[in-house]
Write a structure and sequence with these properties.
Elements (H helix, E strand, L loop, with lengths): L1 E2 L3 H6 L8 E5 L5 E5 L4 E7 L4 E8 L4 H12 L14 H13 L4 H11 L13 H9 L5 H20 L26 H13 L3 H12 L3 H5 L6 E2 L2 E4 L10 E4 L2 H12 L17 H12 L6 H14 L4 H8 L8 H6 L5 H16 L6
Parallel strand pairs: 1-2
Antiparallel strand pairs: 2-3, 3-4, 4-5, 6-7, 7-8
Helix pairs in contact: 3-4, 4-6, 5-6, 7-8, 8-12, 12-13
């Protein structure tokens, strides 16, 4: 959004309830004020890749001083940072995807690419209306889930394009996802857990082992599928920060049955295993899950439902909620904020005791242990 930045205007511009918006100065191209939920910051955009640099915060830095610094900074670049031109969707989308590679996880980049490549617009970005954006999203698929994911990807892209002045406004800024998503509530019953384990322990393959480990440990599917031999100790698994959702190193104890399963994999008791078992990415998720549901006859569930089942069983067994949160590696919950900062105790022994009790409970449900 372009406005004339004055001292009065800067003071009157309000903070955002969520997200952020940048107000670009009409008198100094490339210079603007970014308002977020917590602060107002002077920024400058420069170079052919339209990079952003924060100059300082209001009111610590006066507008006149910020504008002077911006002009001096921009003077070091021969190329005009904001050529007055209009942009089309495809080239800006490619610039966005390239920028994503430098700061986001590969899986996140792949998701954005999947949806944005399938969305098409003719004409200029500034001419895209909210109704046109929604129609493009609905053309993606009849699936509510796909439309919601497409909406999120496109809204993030538009926000990025606005921040870099490829377009004036985000046509999806004030809209919500097309479909309401109900909270996930699926928890497997004792009978379902027994049926699942009877099958996965009896018909060993890599997908079945992943499912068993997910039920035994409560971790996320990518964390288990991407395990490496160096993560595993006789009674402990340690996930490095770069392979956890919250980017925090996570060490959690394992019981004897989990250890025995991992030992059978390491020992290569089954010909499908071997030294490359955890070294080759797993890619047969959909096919493996369809086959599992067909063989077991279980009502549809997702792999994340096993994580919810794990948490529910711990509650039934009386595991304190803060110990369960530690096992799940939740970054928020009973120990968050100031409490998490001052409480540095790792609850390792409590986690170990809880897991031993949990494994005994799980083992009682099947005859294979």
């Amino acid at each position: 959004m372009k406005i004339r930045l004055t001292d009065l205007a800067v003071r009157k511009l309000s903070l955002r309830e969520q997200g952020q918006v940048t107000y670009w100065d009409v008198s100094t191209p490339g210079f603007g004020l970014r308002c977020s939920a917590r602060s107002k910051s002077y920024v400058v955009m420069y170079g052919p890749r339209r990079q952003l640099k924060t100059l300082g915060r209001f009111p610590d830095l006066a507008l006149a001083d910020a504008r002077k610094v911006a002009r001096q900074f921009l003077a070091t670049f021969a190329e005009t940072p904001y050529p007055e031109q209009r942009y089309t969707y495809a080239p800006v989308r490619e610039a966005f995807l390239e920028d994503c590679k430098t700061r986001l996880r590969p899986s996140t980049c792949a998701g954005y690419k999947l949806y944005l490549k399938r969305i098409q617009f003719s004409g200029y970005l500034d001419d895209i209306s909210p109704s046109q954006a929604i129609k493009a999203i609905k053309r993606l698929s009849n699936s509510p889930s796909s439309q919601n994911h497409g909406f999120t990807a496109l809204k993030v892209f538009f926000g990025w394009a606005c921040n870099r002045q490829y377009m004036e406004r985000n046509p999806l800024a004030d809209l919500r996802r097309p479909h309401k998503v109900n909270a996930r509530e699926r928890v497997l019953s004792e009978e379902e857990v027994a049926s699942l384990l009877d099958h996965t322990l009896g018909a060993r393959d890599r997908y079945h082992d992943i499912v068993t480990l997910l039920l035994l440990t409560g971790q996320r599917r990518g964390e288990i599928a991407n395990l490496q031999w160096g993560d595993i100790e006789p009674d402990l698994i340690t996930l490095p920060s770069e392979r956890t959702k919250n980017h925090k190193r996570h060490a959690f104890p394992i019981g004897p049955r989990t250890a025995a399963l991992l030992e059978s994999i390491i020992g290569g008791e089954h010909h499908v295993f071997g030294e490359t078992y955890f070294d080759v990415p797993y890619s047969g998720w959909s096919k493996g899950h369809r086959r599992l549901l067909k063989k077991t006859g279980l009502k549809h569930f997702t792999l994340h439902d096993l994580r919810r089942t794990f948490s529910t069983i711990h509650a039934i067994l009386g595991t304190p909620i803060h110990v369960t949160e530690r096992l799940l590696n939740h970054s928020s919950g009973t120990l968050s904020g100031v409490a998490a900062i001052y409480n540095r105790y790792d609850y390792k022994e409590e986690m170990r005791a809880a897991q031993l009790k949990y494994e005994d409970y799980i083992a009682s449900l099947t005859s294979d242990w």
